[in-house]
Amino acid sequence: MTKATLTSELKAAIRDIPNFPRTGITFKDITPVLGDGALFQAAVAQMAEVCKREQIAKVAAVEARGFIFGAAIAAFLGIGFIPIRKKGKLPFLTRAIHYSLEYGCGELESHKDAFLTGERISIVDDVLATGGTARAAARLVQESGAHVAITQCFLEISLLRGRGALAPLPVCSLIQF
């Protein structure tokens, strides 16, 4: 399947849910893509190609829907997967980063021993909106001594300019709205 065909099929499969999670927001529901084995596999394969090209050692993905794509990409390539989770969800010694959200603040954690110095890491999330969460994940990886080679997302909402918030990190999105 060509990239143009894949993009077209993915966009056709994604549902718009008006006024979710609150009034005025149109939620992009990706579950139809996840439920279509061939389409999901093609999306993961395309995202995995980016990791292969960037010579990624591990995929680090953000809780929760980032795990869906991140774990699948890592398994597809036979490389490590690192979960980046909300505070208090990891059982071992952790490294944490505080960050600002649109309506408050958040904290992300990874295990202290998750990344090796100099390792090339791909940060994966399902959606890139404002870029705040991905930027926090990148800082977490960088503070561990590893190198963020690329930040990937399945879907980018271009209007919210998350790509700019991640500069100068390279960003790759499979589809854009």
Folded structure, characterized:
This protein has a single domain (3-176), classed as Rossmann fold (3-Layer(aba) Sandwich). Strand 3 (58-62), helix 4 and strand 4 (80-86) form a beta-alpha-beta unit. The chain contains six helices and nine strands. 36% of the residues lie in helices and 34% in strands. Helix 1 (3-13) packs across helix 3 (37-53) and helix 3 (37-53) crosses helix 4. The protein is an alpha/beta fold and 177 residues long. The model has no long low-confidence stretch (mean pLDDT 97).
Basic shape: globular
CATH architecture: 3-Layer(aba) Sandwich
Helix-strand category: alpha/beta
Count, helices: 6
Kindly, what is the distance between the CA atoms of the first and last residues, rounded to a whole number of angstroms? 21 Å
Order of helices and strands: HEEHHEHEEEEHEHE
CATH topological fold name: Rossmann fold
CATH C-level label: Alpha Beta
Poorly predicted tracts of residues: none
Task: Record the strand order, biggest sheet.
Answer: 5-6-4-3-7-8-9
* Strand elements, count: 9
Strand content: 25-35%
Helix content: 25-40%
Summed over residues and divided by their number, the pLDDT gives a mean of: 97
Give the number of domains.
1
Query: What is the radius of gyration?
Result: 16 Å
**Sheet bearing the most strands, described?**
7 strands, mixed
